[in-house]
Design goal:
With 225 residues, the protein is of the alpha/beta class. The protein is 44% helix and 13% strand. The chain has a single domain (11-224), classed as Uracil-DNA glycosylase-like domain (Uracil-DNA Glycosylase, subunit E, 3-Layer(aba) Sandwich). It starts with 10 loop residues before the first helix and ends with a helix.
């Protein structure tokens, strides 16, 4: 049976993990042994300053072993409050597209390039702000830890920010979309972030983008074999 990502480690383990994350070096002192430890450790992460204004860290969700991994940009407002990835409007769009593509979300691992919500206050609202290169690079250690533990066969980057984190280089969706890339132990694909579909101004544009997005998800599932 796959380990649930939200399984709570013991208090002793949680304290040890948090201490290692705060005080040790990331290359040597601490390597998460499970997704549960990733969740615990992300709460204590201070690799960049995004934790200061976030409610909590949000790591990935899915089976401890999943052949297909999806990587988004960062938690949004609702994800930050719920502590779960892809539960807001973009997440609902993502779930609908997965269903149409025939991809069971329960068999995939879904995470983000950056684990804390970056935002700007606008009245009572918290408006999404794009993570910068330094923040993406600082958080890439967590993404690599998830990848090491989950061992996906295919990793799909949802948007350019996710693409930079997955491929460790700048990515242009328009140019790199639809072409499987060799990541060594996995294949990498790039497509749009589901939030992109929500921002399109016309119904025709949304319909075309939806068809392409669903096709990308289906292709990723087929690539898993």
């Amino acid at each position: 049976m796959a380990d649930a990502p939200h399984t709570e480690p013991s208090r002793r383990t949680a304290r040890a993990v948090a201490r290692s994350v705060r005080d040790g070096t990331y290359d040597d002192a601490f390597a998460p042994a499970s997704i549960a430890e990733v969740w615990t450790a992300v709460q204590a992460c201070r690799r960049c300053d995004l934790w200061r204004n976030a409610t909590q860290g949000v790591a990935g969700e899915g089976p401890a072993r999943a052949a297909l991994m999806f990587v988004g940009e960062q938690p949004g407002d609702q994800e930050d409050l719920a502590g779960k990835p892809f539960v807001g409007p973009a997440g609902q769009m993502f779930d609908k597209a997965l269903a149409e593509a025939g991809v069971p979300r329960s068999e995939t691992y879904v995470t983000n390039a950056v684990k804390h919500f970056k935002h700007e206050p606008r009245g009572k609202r918290r408006i999404h702000a794009k993570p910068n290169v330094g923040e993406i690079r600082a958080c890439r250690w967590w993404l690599e830890s998830e990848r090491r533990l989950v061992r996906p066969k295919v990793i799909v980057a949802l948007g350019a920010t996710a693409g930079r984190a997955v491929f460790d280089r700048p990515v242009t969706v328009a140019e790199d979309r639809g072409h499987p890339f060799d990541l060594g132990d996995a294949k990498g694909l790039v497509t749009v972030h589901p939030a992109y579909l929500l921002r399109l101004p016309s119904q025709d544009d949304r319909a075309k983008a939806w068809t392409l997005f669903v096709a990308d998800l289906r292709a990723a599932w087929e690539l898993v074999g």
